[in-house]
Amino acid sequence: MKTHYYLSWFNDFFPEKLVKLLHEDITDRKSLVMISAQPSGYKDEQVNMDDVFERTWFNQANIIFEEYHFIDHRMQKEDAQRSIQNASVIFLCGGDPVLQNDFLAEYELSDVIMNSNAVIMGASAGALNMAAKWLSSKNAGHKVEKSTIYDGIGFDQFAYESHARLDYDALVQGYLFPLSEEIDVYAAEQESAIRVKDGKIEIMGPVYLISHSKIQKLVETL
């Protein structure tokens, strides 16, 4: 039974509906492993999980683990892979999706994550890298000169766009249309989530499906 959560961004905490689902899905709470999207962004030598904003979401939801591990460049590659193999939940953090994508390749983590039986979660950049594809574009708030399509880990065969700071008006500009001609794109506004459980896609909050250059707002099913 595979469970994947694609999260946009939550400014405060997990919504009540999401908390209930997570309590149902996360039955094994031995180890939470979080993977940085700014893997070289910490100056001190000590990995401090208290500095990871997304961990507060779990604390506020009263989902407490026996162990916490944070993977960035301060952790050795072999230790990172071992932590993922033993994880109950693997969480790909928000931040810079390109840096995270490069880090996953450098540390050879994608296959290890794909082979895990853990609940897999990602927020913003992390959710992008969980999907099959995603678009790096100025329209999506990325500081890039040209648009580039990246391959994610590919848990589910769709592309994902997280709109932490954008809304439907940005979508109608059509910057995701070329990508939508080759693969379905799920574009999520803030305070939204997609759960894929045993291949079934379920929606919470404002999420749009873009397919063959047509936009459809999806009905909430969670």
Description:
This protein has helices spanning 16-25, 53-60, 77-85, 97-106, 110-114, 125-130, 168-171, 177-180; strands spanning 3-7, 31-37, 67-71, 89-95, 119-123, 133-136, 148-151, 159-163, 185-189, 193-197, 200-204, 207-211, 214-217. It is an alpha/beta fold. A 7-stranded mixed beta sheet has the order 3-2-4-5-1-10-11, sandwiched between helices. Strands 8-9-12-13 form a 4-stranded mixed beta sheet. The longest helix is centred in the first third of the chain and has 10 residues, at 16-25. 39% of the residues are buried. The chain starts with a strand and ends in a 5-residue tail after the last strand.
